[in-house]
Every structure is written in C-alpha cells, then in structure tokens.
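Consider the following assembly input.
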Amino acid sequence: MNVFIIGVGLIGGSLALDIQKEFTSATVYGIDQNTDHLQKALDLGIIHKKTTNADLINADIVIIAIPVDVSLKVIPEVLDQVSDTCLVLDVGSTKEEICEIIKKHPKRRNFLATHPIAGTEFSGPNAALTGLYKGKTNIICEVEKTAFKLQEKALDIFSKLGMRIRYMDPKSHDKHIAYVSHLSHISSFMLGKTVIEKEKNERDIFDMAGSGFASTVRLAKSSPAMWAPIFQQNKENVIETLEEYIQNLENFKALLEQDNFSAVYAEMENTNHIKQILSGIQEVKLL
Amino acid sequence: MNVFIIGVGLIGGSLALDIQKEFTSATVYGIDQNTDHLQKALDLGIIHKKTTNADLINADIVIIAIPVDVSLKVIPEVLDQVSDTCLVLDVGSTKEEICEIIKKHPKRRNFLATHPIAGTEFSGPNAALTGLYKGKTNIICEVEKTAFKLQEKALDIFSKLGMRIRYMDPKSHDKHIAYVSHLSHISSFMLGKTVIEKEKNERDIFDMAGSGFASTVRLAKSSPAMWAPIFQQNKENVIETLEEYIQNLENFKALLEQDNFSAVYAEMENTNHIKQILSGIQEVKLL
C-alpha cells in the first residue's frame, strides 16, 4: 500500500506515524512545499520516502493535510493525477468550500472529506505525535458521494487509528465547529493579545500567570498560516459565534457594573453544567 | 506547631497536605462551616483534628482559605482571638480590600496577605492535592506590615512547599491579576455559555469538541461561590480588562467582516509571542 501524505506537519505527520505503526507493509511517501519540513519528516522517520506530485499515479491513498486555502487548489489537482482506484482524503477544519469545489470533479467518488478533531497548538513535523488520533472524533462529510470500496478503505484506517466516526453534512459541520473550535481559538488569541498589550513588562505576566491562564491562552500559540484560511472559509459562522460571545461578555460586564452579583453567580453556576458535557473529553482528549 | 486551616477545600486542603509532609511534627487542625467538608478532610487525612474558632488561642499559624467576601469578616475575628505570637495568613485572589479592612487592627503585625497562584477548576476537600504549590508563585502584599519573626515563619513554610516569592503592593496585585487570572475565568465562562446556548443538543458538542475547546473552557467549571466575590472585590479592574478584551474581539470581527485576512494573520502572528512568555509556565504549571 502506497500512502502519500501531502503536508507532513502536525496533522499529516501524526497520521503518517500511526499508519506506519498499524500498516506495517505500507510505504509512506511525503510531499511538502517546505523542503526543510520534508527532509525533517524523513529524518524523524515520519515518512519512508520524499516524493513529488509527479509520482501521484502510484498512490493508493493520498492524505491532504495542508492549510484549507491551499487545499482548494491542491485537491482538484491531486484528483486529476491519481489512478481510478486511489482514495484521496483531506483532513481540514472546514468542509463546505472544499466539498463545493470538487462536487463536479470527474473523480469526485475518489474523494472523502474528513475532519479528525485532534491536534495541539504546535505545528510542523517536529510536532507530530504517535497516537494523536486515538479516541478522537473524525467527522466525515458527504460520505455517500465517495465510492463504497474507498469508504471502506478509509474506515479501516480510521478504525485502526482508534477514531470514532460521525457523519455530518458540510454546512452543519462548519456551523457547529465554529462554536466548539474556531471561536475558542479567537477567544484565546484575543485574551493573549489583551494581556500582552497591557502587561508590557513580560516578567510580570510570567510571574503571576498560573495554570488557568496557560490553559485558556494555549490556543493562542496556534499557527496563523493554518488558522487565517479557516476563519476566511468559515467567515459567516465565525462572525455569528463572535457576535454571540461578545454579547455574553457585554451582559456579564453589565451585571458587574450594576453590582448584580447574585446574577453573576447564577451565570457561572449555569455554565458549570459544561462539566458534565465535557466529562468524556477531559480524560481521553485533553493533552 | 499547631496549624489551623480555616476552609479545608482545594486551596486550604492542599496546603494542609504539604504542611503535614514537610513539617512532620505539626498538628493540623481544620475549621470549616461546611461540616461535611470538615469530616471529609478528616477522613482523607488532610487534617489531624476538627476544631472550632474557640480553640484559636492555641494556634501558632492560622491559614484562611475561604471565599474572599467571607475573609473580610473572618480575618479580623481571627486576629481578635489568636495569641500575640500567632501568624495569620490569607491566600485569597484579591488583596486590596483585605489589606484595607485590617490596616488598623491592633494585631495587624500578626497578619500576612498572600496569594499563591495555584489551583485547579475543582473545589472542596476531594480536590486537595499534594505538591500543588511546588514551583508556583506566591505573591505577598505589604510584607513590611508583618512582624519580622512571623514573616520568617511564613517564608519557611512557602520555601519548604517549593514556592517562588514575589512582593507587590495590593493595588498592583489586584490590577495585574485581573489580566492574568480573573479575565481568563470570565472569557472561559462566557465561551462555555455561548456554546451551551447554541448547541442545545449536547451530544453534538461532546462529539465535536476536542482538546483545544476543553482547555479553553476548563475554567468554566470553577466554583461560583469562590469567583463571584472575587469579581465583586476586583470589580473596577475586571471591568477594565473586560472592556479591552471586548474591544479586541470587536476589532477582530471587523477584520473578518472587511475580508482583511492579512491583518487577521498579523493579529495571530503577533500574539504567538505568548509562546515565549509562557514557556516557563507550561511545564511546571499546566495541570
């Protein structure tokens, strides 16, 4: 089995490591615009061989793990080049535009749109981890548009990597993910910004910041090259979540200004409920 | 050495555990309004004995680890009752009102205002942890107002528990801590609220939320009984941080609306800088 990984960073690199482990007869090829990253992936044993798009005809599976704006261009090109029996899947954080752009592609049935909900705030091949996907959710969109045998091939990989599968249409995916992922990245980035702006003396931040702050701003370390295109593709949903978030913050501020601390208490108590909702995630997912 | 812990929850209970470990000859007494918590602390070995305020005259050290609104009443009462050689310290997250309320107390020199920056999102004696304070910062306010010998006694404990000490005036403490702690709690609570409101189908949240979301809303599990009084006492500073945070979110939203994604990119890239600032915290402090 020839597995081609396009984009050998955190997401693609971690997939490569797990695929090597679970499919010992697979040969993992890497393609990356960043030649340093590609060499690094080879040196780290993330891939077996470096290659280029010219070799795509020999691929059994192509996994596209690059920023979602580049995917819009790369996915159709890859589909043009692969064989009729090759499975091409992307793992980006937005699904609507990606599904739209290839909907009339002659090889649409070779493509599967997926979003494994896994990652860390780090990026590049050095950030790749074995077992990153174990116990994580993988959202698959428009499964019915993929050839049955290629669905099977993909599900076999996801299952061996330990992922739970959920099926969803691209529009719902993008809407929901704006709330549970995209918004938290923005809240984290803007929290980091607010504190950096205020606290010019970094030593003071460092000395006073505890684990709570570190946890809340963790996502502010994420890669802008990955996230700016995500916000662009999911702009409408992200703006909607931001408006609701800002409104909730404004309401909370108004309660403080009105000295209505019983309402402040109630706001927090009602939200404590997140404890139960997230109880399953904490253990399996929190890094 | 008789150590009295008033409030045997996460913070007081964790102090009790470490003090028992580092001062093997110490007897640790617990006082708590919540009789279930007090019994639980005894059962868990967090304290050696249950007691009441009537016994405070026998204390060598009293540690007050209760919500900051209750502290305003309890600290002066405790000072009224302890011996002339007893050290009384509080560990609350606000310092200005607490220092103000006891500034003319006849036993002011028996009191030390501290804020160990440590904790988790959980509360009560079950949440108490050994080693919680190791490597953490403890902020001490108005140290010069505490008797020299009692400062020494406190520093000996903090040093054996592995804490780093920083001295700060109460006003600066409350201002800085609003940015690096209080604001992140509000951003987290309101993020949790926004998602809960939107996603009535909790199963969908659970399935799509990953470690990033879990990390960002972790603080939304915190105790309202602890946090409402903190926001009340630090109201002015907290409102200021909230205004700046909301403004940054509004600006980010405007950039999205204007399709100015190079500026969106720059915003994130500039904030990535938090990586270096927090690099020391991640390893020692992130739970």
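The domain at 2-170 of chain B is CATH 3.40.50.720 (Rossmann fold). Ask yourself how this observation constrains the way the partners meet.
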